[in-house]
Specification:
The chain is of the alpha/beta class and 432 residues long. It is built from 17 helices and twelve strands. The protein has helices spanning 10-16, 42-49, 64-77, 88-97, 114-126, 140-144, 169-178, 191-194, 240-243, 254-258, 262-275, 281-291, 294-313, 332-338, 355-364, 394-399, 416-430; strands at 81-85, 105-109, 130-134, 151-157, 183-186, 204-208, 222-226, 318-322, 346-351, 369-370, 380-382, 407-410. A seven-stranded mixed β-sheet has the order 1-7-6-5-4-2-3, with helices on both faces. It has a five-stranded mixed β-sheet with strand order 8-9-12-11-10. The structure holds pyridoxal-5'-phosphate.
């Protein structure tokens, strides 16, 4: 995209950001299927290894296809630097591990994706990093009480999976900043089409690009984006990894050498170098195709989900329906503030009769498929108590914010009336 006079809108960024071909170059972002890149002198290569020049040399650190797609996501979020990772899990790990090491602590919303919950509560604990989970709806004083002198970050999801609560981003940002730590937001379900957390004070955004960004259920991937707004140097003692010399690069200091790009540069040249969770350029290419239509798909997901939620709310078989686009939702007001154009395509509900009825209903669906996945073009459905959370007792499920009868219905971009008709016939089959 050549320089435009007007700042390009999200729609234009979805289609064109990140790849700017010059005369005679491919119009479409190519897949740079090469592990390595050639240089003419040994000195040129040495300067890259010392981070004195920018350039590609080995795909584990950087690859032109991945760079272009990371740049598109960064532009969509309104950040200053971004990177792709092999999965959303890797992005969450890097987001925390880039600024926390053994002996550190961070605060996280308790209503987060199950995989992230495990990463934080079990795996990071083994590395000596502790987490305190907080109720995201708690007031600021209660949230502040979870902090310790060694707290280094706050983490939460814009729209939680599968609880679907909407985060009060400004409240979380205020509490984090009062304590001198950054707010990291998982923006997977909202996508930058429906919410840009940086505009509300978040400092770092992560994504499972596996979901709406890819949108077609072809490629597992993740992304990390920095707003460039957090002043690491102001709290230099808290973040020595960014503000003190790195021995593995001849004593270079990230904040001094890279300014606003310090966080992403460190995550790339240190974490990616050592841990290697790269996205394959093939997957990045497919992700880019998904991103080219994200601005068209998200409104359709939201429109269809609103129709499904309203239909279910009017049915006597439904025990409850949760979607922040419904006036009955406790998150309706926050949704109107942070997600005025729609939230996402995922609706959760319970049927009268509980677990057994839920299973009969799901087995009777024809258009909606039973899959672990969520947030793709095809309507799909999951019963967490029978699938992702099946090891938990009913009491444990409630504590995890997953009601035993909760059905997670991920509304696709098919015809809304076809989806509703499928639900209607499955309700009849389930004989509630
Ligand atoms: C799926 C998901 C993840 C994990 O992403 P993967 O790409 O499956 O590793 C993280 N956060 C949220 C909100 C998710 O839905």
């Amino acid at each position: 995209m050549d320089e435009l006079k007007k700042k390009p809108s999200r729609e234009t960024l979805c289609v064109q950001a990140g790849w700017n071909p010059k005369k005679g170059e491919p119009r479409v972002l190519p897949i740079y299927q090469s592990t390595t890149f050639r240089y003419e002198t040994s000195e040129q290569m040495a300067r890259l290894f010392d981070l004195e020049d920018e350039g590609f040399f080995y795909t584990r650190l950087q690859n032109p296809t991945n760079e272009a797609v990371a740049a598109k996501i960064t532009a969509l979020e309104g950040g200053v630097a971004g990177m792709l990772t092999s999965s959303g899990q890797a992005a969450a790990f890097y987001a925390i591990f880039n600024i926390c090491s053994a002996g550190d602590h961070f605060v996280s919303s308790s209503t987060i994706y199950g995989g992230t919950f495990n990463l934080f509560a079990v795996t990071l604990k083994k590395l000596g990093i502790e987490v305190t989970f907080v109720n995201p709806d708690a007031d600021e004083a209660e949230l502040a009480a979870a902090f310790r002198p060694n707290t280094k970050a706050v983490f939460a999801e814009t729209i939680s999976n599968p609880g679907l609560n909407v985060l009060d981003i400004e409240k979380f940002a205020r509490v984090a900043h009062a304590q001198g730590v950054p707010l990291i937001v998982d923006n997977t379900f909202a996508t930058p089409i429906n919410c840009r957390p940086f505009e509300w004070g978040a400092d770092i955004v992560m994504h499972s690009t596996t979901k709406y960004m890819d949108g077609h259920a072809t490629s597992v991937g993740g992304a990390l984006v920095d707003s460039g707004n957090f002043d690491w140097e102001a709290y230099g003692d808290k973040f020595p990894g960014l503000t003190r010399p790195d021995d593995s690069y001849h004593g270079l200091t990230y904040t001094r050498s890279f300014g606003k790009k310090a966080y992403i540069t460190k995550a790339t040249v240190q974490l990616m170098r050592d841990l290697g969770s790269i996205q394959s350029p093939q997957n990045a290419f497919l992700l880019n195709l998904g991103l080219e239509t994200l601005h068209l798909r998200m409104p359709r997901h939201c429109e269809n989900a609103q129709r499904v939620a309203e239909f279910l709310e009017g049915r006597p078989e439904a025990a409850w329906v949760n979607y922040c686009g419904l006036k009955s939702s406790p998150y309706y007001e926050l949704g109107q503030k942070y997600l005025p154009n729609g939230s996402c395509g995922v609706v959760t509900f319970g049927l009268k009769g509980g677990r057994d009825v839920a299973i009969r209903f799901m087995d009777s669906l024809k258009l909606a498929a039973i899959v672990t996945h969520v947030a793709d073009a095809r309507t799909c459905v999951l019963h967490p108590a029978s699938h992702t959370h099946r090891q938990l007792s009913d009491e444990q499920l409630v504590a995890a914010g997953v009601a035993p009868d909760l059905i997670r219905f991920s509304v696709g971009i098919e015809n809304a009336e076809d989806i509703v008709a499928d639900i209607e016939q499955a309700l009849a089959e389930a004989n509630i």
